[in-house]
Amino acid sequence: MRYIVLFPLYIDPGTGSVLFSIVIGIAATIYFLFHALLIKAKAFFTGGVRKPAADNRFVIYAEDKRYWSLFKGVVEEFEARGIELLYLTGSPDDPAFDAQYAHVKCELLAKGNKGFARLNFISADFVLATTPGLDVYQWKRSKGVRHYSHVIHGVTDATTYRMFGLDYFDSILMTGGYQGEDIRRVEQVRALARKELVTVGCGYLDEYRKRLAEMPRGQNHELTVLVSPSWGASALLSRYGEKLLTPLAGSGCRIIVRPHPQSLISERTALDRLTARYASCKNVIWDYERDNIGALSKADIMISDFSGIIFDYMFLCDKPVLYVNYQFDFRPYDAWFLPERELWQIKTLRETGVELREQDFPQIKTIIQKSLDSTALKEARVKAKETAWQYRAAAGKRTADFMISKAASLAAVMPDKERGGHAGGKRRKDGGLIEKL
After folding, report:
1. How far is CA 367 from the centre of its chain?
2. Is the distance from CB of 103 to CB of 35 less than 8 angstroms?
């Protein structure tokens, strides 16, 4: 008797991405070829010469509901102006579905390759996204899109994206003009075409600021310390754990510990141990709320490591931060291509925050009080905020203005039959200036 043993086939992620790209490329060519033939046939039989219009003039792609606060102001601008907009989201419970807009259509994007296929065949004048990696892995430029724009979703350095994350967008929307300097340097080092760089502000900070203003302010509350780390072996709780929390618990301050959401998945055992260890400490509170705005509003000072929440807290609440130093590994990021790798966020953190070393833990309460009283730290925070969060309360309007004006200018200089921007590897060579809307 003969037996046939079947082994499951394994395809590594890189090879899978290449194969998917080949399939999508072939499918896209066939799709757009037949699409063009259909249009010509319609024109022939109707005697018309009308050019094809985009299925959607404006599209926003949000891979997750957590980006709603970033896009909300933009969406509301389109709704108020009565301009049609397609909002694609990867979350079935995205708050966008609850708004009941008249001019904004919200659509759930499928997960995985099916969702990428939808994106790769989409037709639009302007696509806005905060997801990096266009034309790098599965997400490919559609020949039916005239302009792709990336909005930076943080006030920190643009070069802390994973390598090649911003390379193939037509424009980048920045929170502060300083981000454009390193984008230009990366373009020069890697011989990339120059993208349009537009400073619009920070949409999610605009939304958070409005929410903070509406929250009740407690009077004469006890001094509150927010411990808000990142996750992983180099993060605050992983490195120090009880060494930090024990002196904090004994300081007499109210301590809010807000672990990173990923810690609940990757570091659950360690969290459970720490939670049990301080269960009897009435002044230690564990915060697992998805929204961090409540914890930010209650805190008088923050202790963190390399989490992006540091600058959100400083800019929104104008309060000091203590940070644990760490060694930034540049290798996976665009910053690796820069000969001088002094990130703005690292330099600024040294000026606006206070480094907390392990030998300082026993004097933690004294350090906290000195930081709260420091006028030099306050002045540094104001300077950093002016640099990294420009056009406050105007990000939604400025983003919508750019989208609408860009679509109009493209329509004036590029006939519909030439839709596709630099699809198929073609890139703009005309440069681009930092625009001032």
Report:
1. 33
2. no
| Distance, CA of 344 to CA of 79 (rounded, Å) | 36
Please state the φ and ψ torsions of residue 285, each to the nearest 5 degrees: -115, 135
Domain boundaries, the chain: 49-202+392-435, 218-388
Q: What are phi and psi of 140, to 5 degrees?
A: -110, 155
For the chain, residues with pLDDT lower than 50 are 1-21, 24-25, 27-29, 31-53, 420-437
Coil, helix or strand for 303? strand
pLDDT digits (tens, 9 = 90+) for 252-267: 999 999 998 889 889 9
CATH topology of domain 49-202+392-435: Rossmann fold (3.40.50)
Secondary structure class of 290 (helix, strand, coil): coil
d(CA 178, CA 192): 19
**pTM above the 0.85 mark?**
no
Name the CATH code of domain 218-388 (choices 3.50.50.60, 3.40.50.720, 3.30.720.120, 3.40.50.2000): 3.40.50.2000
Token pair 């001019």 is found at 103
Helix (H), strand (E) at residue 249: helix 242-249
